[in-house]
Amino acid sequence: MPPLPGRVHRAQPVPGVAPFPAPPPPLRPVPSLLPRESESTAGGSRVLPAGPGRAGAARGPHRDRTGTAPGPLRAAATMASIGNFFRRSLRRAGRREGKDGASAAENTPPRVPQGKPGERSSVFYSAGQFFFEYLVVVSLKKMPDGHYEPKITYQFPKRENLLKGQKEEEERLLQAIPLFCFPDGNNWAPVTEFTSETFSFVLTNVDGSRKIGYCRRLLPSGRGVRLPEVFCIISCLGCFGLFSKILDEVEKRRQISMAVIYPFMQGLRESPFPAPGKTVTIKSFIPESGTELIELTRPVDAHLEHVEFQALLQRLSPPLILHIFASAMLERRLIFLAEELSVLSQCIHAVAALLYPFTWAHTYIPVLPECLLDTVCCPTPFMVGIQMRHLERVLEQPMEEALIVDLCEGKIIRAVGDEEEILPGKLQNEMLVSLNRHNNNNNVHTYFQQKITEYHEQKKHRRDS
Question: Quick one: how many helices (H) and strands (E) in the chain?
Answer without folding.
Answer: 11, 15
